[in-house]
Amino acid sequence: MSIPDTGPPGRERRFTDLFTATYPAVLRFAERRVQPSHAEDIVSEVFMVAWRRLDDVPAGPDDARAWLFGIARLTLLASIRGERKRQALAVRISEDPTAGGPDGALEPDLVARRVDLARAWSRLPAVHQEALALTVWDGLDAPRAAQVLGISPVAYRLRLSRARKALRAHARALPEAPAARPATATPRRSST
After folding, report:
1. Which are the contacts of 54, defined by CB distance < 8 A and separation ≥ 6?
2. Where is this region: Disordered (predicted)?
3. How do residues 72-102 score in pLDDT, each as one tens digit?
4. pLDDT for 141-178, tens place per residue?
5. What is the pLDDT of residue 192?
6. Nearest-CA neighbor of 34 among 74, 89, 97, 75?
């Protein structure tokens, strides 16, 4: 089934190109914020908005992706209230399938660092999580991330700086796990 082309020639082609180029990124964006079963529903709503407002979609691929992320974010916010809202916006770093080594095996040090990072991450407010996620996982620069959040690039840079500082502070505040340390030489007592 195809979408009826009711607009000027090339409208359907432009939408198809937009969909093909951005669908995987928009789906990943949604999957990090909601359960995978709900992510596709969010993405379908995003592309329905994109179809209706195709003339408003920026021409550049990165700008279009950021615009779609903004629509996805607004769709999420409209569908989730209270505590569910916070859970939907939280990036699930502990479920990241790319966390293993090159052969897929988990290394103990990597697991320990990820657990510490996940614990520090969970202590961040949703606003800090979102700022970090837009840069780290979604790969947006400040102007595009600011567009997603509906704030100025300067405000986004400030928010990102505060989020990084808070994450470092939470990570440093975690109790250190006992590490296997090399035995140090202890002074011997003289038997005299």
Report:
1. 7, 11, 14, 15, 18
2. 171-192
3. 999 888 876 544 544 545 555 545 545 555 5
4. 999 999 999 999 999 999 999 999 998 898 888 766 55
5. 47
6. 89
Give me Rg for the CA atoms of the chain. 22
Distance of CA 27 to the CA centre of its chain: 11
Averaged confidence pLDDT in the chain? 79
Whether 98 is in a domain gets the answer: yes
Predicted model pTM: 0.56
Amino acid of residue 65: R
Using CA atoms, how far apart are residues 58 and 10, in angstroms rounded to an integer? 16
Q: 144 and 74 share a domain?
A: no
In one-letter notation, the amino acid at residue 85 is K
Phi-psi region of 139 (alpha: psi -120 to 50; beta: other; left: phi over 0): left
Cα angle at 169 between 163 and 173, to 5 degrees?
Answer: 145
Domain co-membership, 169 together with 128: yes
